[in-house]
Amino acid sequence: MEPDLPSRDPRDRDHRELRSSEWYTGDVRNAYIHRAWMRRGVPSSAFQGRPQIAVANTASDLTPCNAHLGEVAQSVKNGILEAGGIPLELPVVSLGETQVRPTAMLWRNMAAMATEEMLRANPVDGVVLLGGCDKTIPSLLMAAGSVDLPAVVVPGGPMLTGTFRGQPLGCGTDVWRLSEEVRAGTLSEDDFLRSESAMIRSKGHCNTMGTASTMGLVAEALGVVVPGLAGTPAPDSRLLEGAHNSGLLAVELVRQDRRPSTFLTKASFHNAIVALAAIGGSTNAVVHLLAIAGRLGIDLTVDDFERIGADVPLLVNLQPAGRYLMDDLYRAGGFQAVLREVRDLLDPSALTVTGRPLVEHLEDARIWDADVITSRETPLLTHAGIAVLRGNLAPRGAIIKPAAASPHLLQHRGRAVVFDTIEDFRARIDDPDLEVDENSVLVLRGCGPKGYPGMPEVSNMPLPQKLLERGVRDMVRICDGRMSGTAYGTVVLHVTPEAAAGGPLALVQTGDWISLDVTARRLDVELSPEELASRTPNEATLAGFAAPTRGWEKLYVDHVMQADTGVDLDFLVGSSGSKVSRESH
Ligand code: FES
Ligand code: MG
């Protein structure tokens, strides 16, 4: 019974232009089926020219950082309805960074693939992407890039700052720091455990400039977030207002046919890299941005991070590189105030979901606390970008985040202490007889995309207890894995090719001299080409590489690419668009 509704015939063919009309319009049996099963109290007008907007939701009790996204989704839906669209919540694969083993990164591509396919398979015209915890925004953006439907991201936002005995606690960063204090004997285990309940103060993701914070902000710099929304704390009511506006915008995007491929260009990635440097963002953004660019067919390389980011100043004083937390950044003027300071370094041609350039949205931004966001004249560092190293240990590159490293170790020569697996490392690192001192270089291999598998965040290896007790707080560490965005130290990451893919890292032996020169962008083992060529990986090294025989891990190891191209699966690069070739019934 629909007495007061517009008398549109559900079979009319006026709305062929909407993708969803391929399901819903017409009098054929299949259109009847598509409509009938979706009715359930919905009037027939819902299928007549109203954009069908998926709300791809990574809310999950097992992704605690995203557990509040149901509430955010409700605001998005209100906005979609207000604009005349039909909101359709689509639960998608979610990844809780702290919970998922062997590493959430192993599942990023699976989440991206599943989301891409479900968006394509369903009668939707556009999508609002709800993410937060580390891998969720990257996987959603990879999916959106490949299906190329109008899309806008709502970052779920960071949590409020918890305090312990009067001191603010940085998620992740303070776990690393306090646990090292326990091992050094300067903090009791009881006190360490007492801080546990204070660490997570509210809903939201980690409050440091880790991967979740970084990817939310970087998504806004790319142009796929309503300007000014990224970094809004999860409990702040302005997040819901922004979510509502994102719902309104999603309907507009469909009406304008503003798909990711129409505005995401190399210029957008230029802006993302400038932003990444200015905020002192996570090294993980490198692999995520490379993977997203790969989906869009944009020619982004690891060297672009060096070329574009190297001269960008660090303006944000947040842990792990600095002192404050995300709540402070928002209070101090937010991400837009940071972007405004580096406006001249941004590409003015890069458009956003609003249809206007990113730079045009920065006019009103101001810095309200110059201790948290520094002005361009007084940066925390003049050269903040991620450095790309090359040499005979990393022919296709390795990266280091100088902002999170110790200045005295950026040029360093030391003897390698080599570990074949993280288990080998854990078994031996605190052995009082291990031959290691503060000048040694800790090398861990078998932690790349294929080797682990999944390229876990283990590169910031804990230091030997005997050195911690002597006051040593940093050493050069080298690994083919990743590092948590919340971690710090002089850590060379993403060594490419990884040991398990034939990289020379597999050939290093304990006692070899290794030289790191970040200024010269070099990473070498001091061996002649002949000596290196004569070596083969030893048994223990080979035994440390994963050899899965079935399931996702098998598919992953067979197809995963290296860090220099974003660790995507080779057959997922590129876009298939939103076309579906066949009917379902
Ligand atoms: Fe989810 Fe840090 S664990 S953002
Ligand atoms: Mg992480």
TrEMBL record:
What does the sequence similarity comment in the record state about its family? Belongs to the IlvD/Edd family.
Molecular function per GO: 2 iron, 2 sulfur cluster binding; dihydroxy-acid dehydratase activity; metal ion binding
The record's section on NCBIfam families has: PRK06131.1, PRK13017.1
Q: Where does the Dihydroxy-acid/6-phosphogluconate dehydratase N-terminal domain start and stop, copy by copy?
A: 50-360
Pfam families xref list: ILV_EDD_C, ILVD_EDD_N
Name recorded for this polypeptide: Dihydroxy-acid dehydratase
- List this protein's GO terms for biological process: branched-chain amino acid biosynthetic process
Superkingdom of origin organism: Bacteria
Enzyme Commission designation: 4.2.1.9
Q: Which UniProt keywords apply?
A: 2Fe-2S, Amino-acid biosynthesis, Branched-chain amino acid biosynthesis, Iron, Iron-sulfur, Lyase, Metal-binding
The Dihydroxy-acid/6-phosphogluconate dehydratase C-terminal domain extends over 371-566
